[in-house]
Amino acid sequence: MEGVIGIVESKKVLSDVMVIAIVIAELGKDGVQISDAVALWGNEKLKLAVAELAVSVSKVPAELGDITLVEGIELAMVAVQKVPELIAALKK
User: Fold this and answer.
1) CA-to-CA dists, residue 4 to 8, 15, 24, 57, angstroms
2) Which of 14, 26, 75, 82 could form a disulfide with 89 if both were Cys (CB 3.0 to 4.6 A apart)?
3) Handedness of CA 1, 3, 7, 68 (dihedral sign)
4) How many CA atoms lie within 13 A of 75 on its CB side?
5) pLDDT digits (tens, 9 = 90+) for 53-91
6) What DSSP assignment string belongs to 31-47?
7) Nearest of 91, 92, 86 to residue 23 by alpha carbon
8) Contacting residues for 49 by C-beta, under 8 A, at least 6 apart
9) 76 burial level (CB within 10 Å; 0-12, 13-18, 19+)
10) Is the Cβ–Cβ distance between 86 and 18 less than 8 Å?
């Protein structure tokens, strides 16, 4: 499979984006307030996700350039697996 790049970094980026969405949902579900911005600034889970995102995001365009149907489904599954956590964050 020479020349195949894969989607490792794309999966990481998508997962990190979902983590960021979950953190924002947890903090903003009762309406966005100034205190939410302060809480975001100090949120370790968010800091880690953003740091990992910054490392991985530059490799995504090359990965998406040769994406296959199976890899597209794998990416969708990464997001789908985080949806229950996002819903739970919104219900808290």
Assistant:
1) 12, 22, 35, 18
2) 26
3) negative
4) 18
5) 898 898 898 888 888 999 999 999 999 999 999 999 888
6) ---HHHHHHHHH-HHHH
7) 86
8) 16, 19, 20, 23
9) exposed
10) yes
